[in-house]
# Entry
Amino acid sequence: MIEINNIEFSYKNTKKILDDITFDMKENHFIAILGNNGAGKSTLLKCINGINTSEKGTVFISGKNVLKMHNREIAKRIAYVAQKNEGTRVTVFDTVLLGRKPYIKWDATEEDLKLVEKIIEQMGLSEYKLRYIDEISGGELQKVMLARALAQQPKLLLLDEPTSSLDPKNQYEVLSIIKNIAKKENIAVIIVIHDLNLALRYCDRFLFIKNEKIYSYGDIQTMTANCIEHVYEMPVAVEDFNGIKIVIPLPEETLVRRRI
Amino acid sequence: MAENNLTFKEYKSFVKHKTLVISALILAVLVMVLVAIVTGSSGISSIDVIKTLFGAGTKQSNIIVFDMRLPRVLTAIFVGAALAMAGAVMQSVLRNPLASASTLGVSQGAAFGAALGIIVFEAGVQNSTSAASAVVINNPYIVTICAFIGGSISTVIVLLLSRLKSLSPESLILAGVALSSLFSGGSALLQYFAADVQVAAVVFWTFGDIGRTSKNEILIVALCTIAAFIYFMFNRWNYNALGSGKHTAKSLGVDVNQTILVSMAVCSLISAIGVAFVGIISFVGLVAPHLMRIFVGNDYRFLIPSSALCGALILLMADTFGRLIVSPVILPIGAITSFLGAPMFLYLLFKGASKA
# Structure
């Protein structure tokens, strides 16, 4: 069980961005964090692994408060993929090997190299492994970053809009890979995502943030037109298409008409 | 499984290629050391030099080799390595490909500090009998400490600027230019109020000359450079992680603030020591790491040792060149490295400075 309690955050001298964010999840849950731009979704991710300091907040993984641990110990439990990633002159293999950083004492061991090899294969990156990451496409780079996070062998994986720079095919591919590996390795995933249909397809829990607080949290039943309209302030229809739930944005006047 | 082993080997041979680069550099440095010791204006033959090295020299050849040429060579190796490593590490922790001791104003700060030590605290005296040793530092510790304080002031300002305002790489370098002018102005004022002989001493000293270091000073430079190398190598994974950004580095278990602060302190210490004993030598910290990135990429496991070796090689070559070109006059090494480094700096600026 992963318990996230009482996360609150504000930048210096500004109003609160997050207030009393408390929720829990199982080891195999795949949670989507949803909400408007600036709602504090990315900030929440960074509070969960201690990049941002939330004074009262606690994050319990297997009964231990991770936020009280040293960075290196946190990194063994929680991996994070930032929204924007830049390629530098380092190979794919070496970038993924960085995921072993929390475990490496002086140098990478044979086991580290083997694990990196395995993950590179799982992510379908084998043919790129000795290419420099400033020479590969955005989609490949995103996969490399995910591979690096998986090399940390985390219990919880935090992803900040991992698909925002990808084309539709790559979006589905990347999320499928994450979902499969997370299921197999028993990794909990929290993902900040804007595409509601992608969220519906891959996530099993949905957490809406509005006005600094949790607006609602729950399984697929939470994804109602009503909830989405309140959070995003736009009219939508939630329909069933051959057993798959889909969200369809509606023209603005629909909302006006309904209000009348 | 068979395929698995194959890919494994590919990576290992890839890494081997990088260690080969380092081995080649070690060889090049050794060859250059020999060339530097053998060449000179004294007319002593190569065979005599080698004999002297093995302990079979005359009194005169002993003086030429052990008191004049070897100290130069050792100074070039350690100062070159220190400046190049400092450049590579500064470029990593500031995430700024244009960073180096001379472009951030750290060298000029250190030079001001050292000049202050020499003039105000009288840690150096002018020796007018020999042009090659126009300034003799009689208290290397005071000069080092003053240079370190001067360099640190620049470092602290650079760190504050990069933290308080997220300046673009180019703006940070502009701030470095401003700091350099400030400290150069300070040095000029010091000279204005100093006695004529002291002015001559400081002017000569700021040229950048590696021929004036005493054995004691070489020992200080060597020990600090080696200690810094060990510290940097301990942090090589941290520098690699910082390449993916501060947040990612933190999520990989790096203590980001501590790494940046301590690394910058170590960088300014070794740069300041270099400046204190040999004057300002520009651009080595910029050229060496960028040259090495072509061969080993941005992987600090290999970039730190190869930059250090490359820096040593550049200074050795520049010094030997400076001694030979209008022999017996010795050109100041700082001028030669500037001729080499300035075009490189301009090239980086125009290229849009790819990520460090």
About this structure: Chain B has one domain: 14-350. The first helix of chain B runs from residue 2 to 38. The two ends of chain B are 37 Å apart (CA to CA).
